Amino acid sequence: MGKYAFVILCNPDDLSESIKAAHALHYAVQLKRKGHDVLVYFDGLGSRIPIASANSPYKGLKPAYDEAYREGLIYGVCGYCASPPHLNIRDSLLKLNIKLIGDEEHHEDISMFIDKDYTVLIV
Predict the structure, then answer these.
(1) Rounded to an integer, what distance in angstroms lies between the CA atom of residue 107 and that of residue 123?
(2) pLDDT on residue 103
(3) Domain membership of residue 111 as a residue range
(4) Angstrom distances, CA of residue 12 to CA of 8, 80, 88, 113
(5) Burial of 68 (0-12, 13-18, 19+ CB in 10 A)
(6) Which CATH number belongs to the domain containing residue 105 in this structure?
(7) Backbone phi, psi, residue 35, to 5°
């Protein structure tokens, strides 16, 4: 079986972007259910998806996010992007028990997945 890391950069406030994110989340769930090792990481404006999915212009984003969360696919959110100097959503994510990767001084790169033999899918 394969190992796949979905890196989602989509803005949940944009209809076309939130549809892309929902599809990526559905694909991740489908792959996991077929026995693959799958994780989802939110970066850039995608870091907002865990807290903004309910208010997205695409109403299918929240159910897609919730399903991926229930399946245990959410690896985490970029702590750099979530930090106060950037999107300033760190505290909201921590209240949702979302793991932050990196901090306001350190932005992780996709080598954290490549070094563990994941195929990276950037959406």
Answers:
(1) 18
(2) 86
(3) 3-122
(4) 10, 18, 16, 24
(5) buried
(6) 3.40.1260.10
(7) 100, 5
Domain count across the chain: 1
Q: What is the pTM of this model?
A: 0.95
Q: What residue has token string 């100097």? A: 85
User: Which residues fall within 8 angstroms of residue 27, CB to CB, at 6 or more apart?
Assistant: 6, 121
Give the whole-angstrom CA distance, residue 64 versus residue 37: 18
Q: Which long-range contacts (CB under 8 A, 24 or more apart) does 98-104 make?
A: 98/50, 98/74, 99/74, 99/75, 100/76, 101/41, 101/75, 101/76, 101/77, 102/78, 103/79, 104/79, 104/80
Query: Binning pLDDT at 50, 70 and 90, where does residue 106 land?
Result: confident
For range 17-46, the mean pLDDT = 98
